[in-house]
Design a protein that fits this description.
Structural class: mainly alpha
Strand content: under 5%
Helix content: 55-70%
Mean pLDDT: 91
Number of strands: 2
Distance between the termini: 77 Å
Shape: elongated
Largest sheet: 2 strands, antiparallel
Radius of gyration: 30 Å
């Protein structure tokens, strides 16, 4: 195996092996549906519906995982253009990104071990060691959240750009054309900045790598490659632009809230940083959602609540500092580990989640490299029969290969098994509740899964449990009471309108400045035929959220039911202006126009609704009525036939009055 690592084609064979291992471990991920934040970032994301004009997909919506991350949003738009909302295409993209990241990691490690300063020790094993690192990292179960959970491609894609930036710098330092590699490094760094904010540490880590492995000293590093490092630092402007234009992650990231200070968040993070390290060596239990301060997860507010974990982290930080001076190559790995985690796991509060396993996507590589190279160094230094084992001994190669195969197979199987938890929303939240039963959000999400499948009694039970876990002072405060809305809608679906309205009213009492409880209570009034009460609620909801498409559409519907067609049409106009492909708004405006006798204009709206949703029968029935009142019985019968073909029932009332002409009748 020692000689194999230098044979021509060895790197190609290693790359193929890495790709096969990834495909095997994730072969059952292609059927995984959209879950959790996928819904808001993909299914409900209007900005990915077209690739042109390009600034539309580069302007992701607020309050989603892709907010302020235009490059990630653009990749979702590319997926949508190729396959709509079919999840398998999104999974294929995620897997391709992960494979590219693993191959890039392989290249970074291999080329680092072949540097003049490391070649004597690791040169003959460079390919084999790089393969070991890339294989273990690629199939590690801790990576499933970044690969199988579709929207968390923000992490894996950022990780790829991070690694590729470093790879290009290495290539530019030792092979030509240097300018091309350095330009590519800057481009990769810029794309990473537009993918996720954690990329902010890349220019610093790349400079540290250059100083430790390539430059010899900071002065020499800047003398040789100061230009490329300056260009890398300039990519920070991309993050600055996102903040200035208001695309920052408002409501998710906060420098300070009344209840959660940076110090409190940092103390809370100590336990989870230690947990990340534990999961790297023993990846169980894996949890998709740990909950956050916004859902009442306990915050550490004194050293007494975190001192054991804080001591461990302080020790590791001190060891990293010492290593940077005495063993700088090992110190680099520790520094990179903490630098990559710092944006999300230090003092800047992420108020929606105290911990997230996807944050370990790239830091895990630092630990794997440290263990792999440390183990190799130790093994080749152990005495054997009074002699040191030579680094190129066949016995060591065979033993190393067996250990690698065992670890890769074990981790690959655990990854395959973990993917099965993602098989449905219900199985995923069942798993989360088993492992973290105090997570209010998990009960809400499982309740939604039950509600979607029609198991309303179980949904109501989960929402009730979530209400029991409702924090008194959630962060941010505007989330307070919304769980009552969830239970209220489940009550409504089960026909218990009184209980539904009571829950929405309770949500309004707890959170009078949030539009959703008002809007949902308005819907309940509509279902009861209480249109004036519904309009009052929609009025308030629209004042609280002037861009509420459904607020305008449903208020228009209530106005129309009261015969206020002009007011209704104005609301439908506003809804369509905000969302130009809103099928229900076109249908409703057509009905309002018909109520005024403007049948030709109504037909235009019904036709537009049919163009947007050709398989829905409602617009055909409405257009058939408009044609009937215009006296066009031929076209009216044609639409009636389509209405029946598509499953519309019962027939619209006017059908009984249509003349039964033999060549027109169905």
């Amino acid at each position: 195996m020692g000689s194999w690592s230098l044979r021509p084609g060895g790197t190609a064979a290693a790359a193929i092996l890495i790709a096969i291992a990834i495909l095997a471990a994730y072969s059952n991920s292609f059927h995984v549906p959209f879950v959790f934040d996928d819904i808001g970032s993909i299914e409900d994301n209007e900005t990915i519906r077209s690739l042109w004009p390009i600034w539309k997909p580069l302007s992701p919506p607020p309050a989603t995982t892709v907010t302020g991350r235009p490059v990630a949003n653009l990749t979702l738009a590319i997926n949508y253009s190729l396959g709509g909302l079919e999840p398998s295409g999104y999974h294929a993209f995620n897997l391709a990104v992960h494979a590219l990241a693993a191959l890039t990691l392989f290249g970074v490690v291999r080329r680092t071990l072949l540097l003049p300063s490391l070649r004597p020790r690791f040169g003959q094993r460079a390919t084999a060691l790089a393969l070991a690192v890339a294989l273990v990292w690629a199939v590690h179960p801790l990576q499933t959240e970044s690969v199988t959970y579709i929207v968390q491609r923000v992490e894996s894609l950022m990780g790829f750009f991070y690694l590729f930036t470093l790879y290009c710098l290495i290539r530019g330092a030792h092979s030509g054309p240097a300018r091309w590699w350095r330009t590519t490094a800057v481009c990769a760094c810029a794309l990473g900045m537009g993918t996720k904010e954690a990329m902010v540490s890349a220019p610093v880590v790349v400079l540290l790598y250059d100083r430790v492995f390539l430059g010899g000293s900071l002065r020499e590093t800047l003398r040789r490659r100061g230009g490329v490092h300056a260009a890398l630092w300039m990519t920070w402007s991309i993050l600055a632009v996102e903040i200035v234009r208001g695309a920052g992650r408002t409501g998710t990231v906060s420098l300070r809230t009344v209840e959660l200070t940076p110090l409190h968040y940092a103390m809370t993070q100590c336990e989870y940083l230690v947990r990340y390290i534990q999961l790297a060596f023993w990846p169980s239990p894996l949890i998709i959602d740990y909950g956050g301060p916004d859902a009442g997860v306990p915050i550490v507010r004194s050293l007494s609540g975190c001192w054991p974990w804080a001591l461990i982290i302080l020790f590791l930080l001190a060891a990293t500092g010492v290593a940077l001076r005495s063993v700088p190559r090992a110190g680099f790995l520790g520094a990179a580990f903490f630098a990559i985690l710092a944006p999300s796991s230090s003092i800047v509060p992420i108020i929606t989640e105290v911990a997230a396993e996807h944050r370990m996507y790239l830091p895990l590589a630092c630990l794997v490299v440290l263990v792999a190279l440390g183990g190799f160094t130790l093994a080749t230094s152990l005495p054997a029969g009074g002699r040191s084992l030579p680094g190129r001994g066949p016995g060591l190669a065979i033993l190393g290969g067996l250990v690698l195969a065992a670890i890769t197979a074990s981790f690959g199987w655990l990854t395959f098994t973990r993917n099965s938890d993602y098989g449905s929303a219900l199985s995923l939240w069942d798993d989360t509740i088993r492992k973290r039963g105090s997570n209010q959000r998990a009960y809400i999400n499982r309740g939604t899964a039950y509600e979607t499948s029609g198991r309303l009694d179980l949904a109501i039970a989960d929402y009730t449990r979530a209400i029991d876990l409702e924090p008194i002072h959630p962060i941010p405060r505007n989330n307070r009471g919304l769980v009552y809305v969830h239970r209220g809608m489940a009550y409504e679906a089960s026909g218990q309108l009184d209980l539904a309205i009571a829950d929405c009213t309770r949500a309004i009492d707890l959170n009078p400045i949030h539009p959703i409880p008002r809007y949902n209570r308005g819907l309940l009034h509509v279902h009861r035929g209480q249109y004036r009460e519904a309009i009052a609620d929609f009025d308030t909801a629209i004042k609280l959220d002037p861009k509420s498409v459904e607020g305008y559409n449903n208020r228009g519907y209530a106005l129309q039911k009261l015969g206020r067609h002009d007011d209704a049409i104005r609301d439908f106009d506003r809804a369509i202006a905000l969302k130009q492909d809103h099928v229900n708004a076109y249908n409703n405006r057509g009905i309002a126009l018909s109520g005024k006798g403007l049948y030709r204009k109504a037909i235009d709206d019904f036709t537009r609704a049919i163009e947007l949703e050709p398989e829905a029968p409602v617009a055909y029935g409405n257009r058939a009525a408009a044609y009937y009142y215009l006296g066009d019985t031929g076209r009216s019968w044609k639409d009636v036939r389509m209405f029946r073909t598509l499953g519309g029932a019962p027939d619209p009332p006017f059908v009984r009055s249509l003349p039964q002409v033999s060549d027109q009748a169905p």
